[in-house]
Every structure is written in C-alpha cells, then in structure tokens.
Please model this.
Amino acid sequence: MELITPSIGLVFWTTIVFVLLIILLTKFAWKPILAAIKERENSIEQALNAAENAKKEMQQLQADNEKFMREARAERDLLLKEARDAKDAMIAEAKGKANSEAEKIIKQARESINLEKLAAINELKTSVGILAVEIAEKIINQQLSSDDKQKSLVSNLLQEANLN
Model:
C-alpha cells in the first residue's frame, strides 16, 4: 500500500521540485518560448498581410488587363470599321470611274458608228450615182446607136424643154 498512498516526505519533496521547476522554467524557458511564439505569430500575420496585398494586386492587375482588353477590342473594331469604310469608298470610286469610262467609250463608239454610217451612206450614194450613170450610159448607147433614134430623142427632149 505504500505505493498507492505516498508518504508526506515524498509529497513535500515532489512539491519543492515542482515549484523549483516552475521557477526555473519561468525564468529561463517561458520568456524565450513566449518570444518565439510571438515572433511566429508576427511572421504569420505578416505573411497573411503579404498574401492579402498580393491578392489585391492580382485583382488590380486583372482589372487593368480587362480594361486593356476592352480598349484593344474597341480599337480593333474601330480599325475594322475604318477599313470597311475605306473599302466601300474605294469600291464606290472605282464603280464611278468605271461608269464614266464606260459612258465615254459608249459615246466614242456611237460617234464612230455615226461617222462610219455617214461614210457608208456617202459611199453608197457615190456608188449608186456611178452605177446610175453607167446604166444610163449603156441605155443611151443602145438607144442612140442609130441616127434615127438620136434624132427622135433630140426632138422629144426639145418638145419637153419647151413645155417646161
């Protein structure tokens, strides 16, 4: 039973050793342990603050990135619109030039056709005149081949000339 119920001397010496241990720990161990814990707590707090600042900076960078992307899209859209407008203007100008050139070519072709038509008509008149003279010459040569026919033609022409 001695092990179950300790003696007063054992309790006394155990209490004295325990109190001495507490005094020594308080004097030498608690301060460095508490200082280390406080330092660890400060470093964790600084790390959390740094992480929070980094998070804010990332959010700011993302916002700036989105802003730059929107500006780039707007600028791209503006450039595309200007390019389309320039293309449309060039096409309209080219169509206008093509139409004016076509009208000029058509006008020149009409003038050329009219000149060739007049030349053909004049040539046809000349050919018809020459042909008529040749036919008349052949007819007159046939009819005037004899002296009697010549005399009767002259007398007919004189009678017609007097009537007019």
About this structure: The mean pLDDT is 87. The two ends are 189 Å apart (CA to CA). Residues 119 and 147 are 43 Å apart (CA to CA).
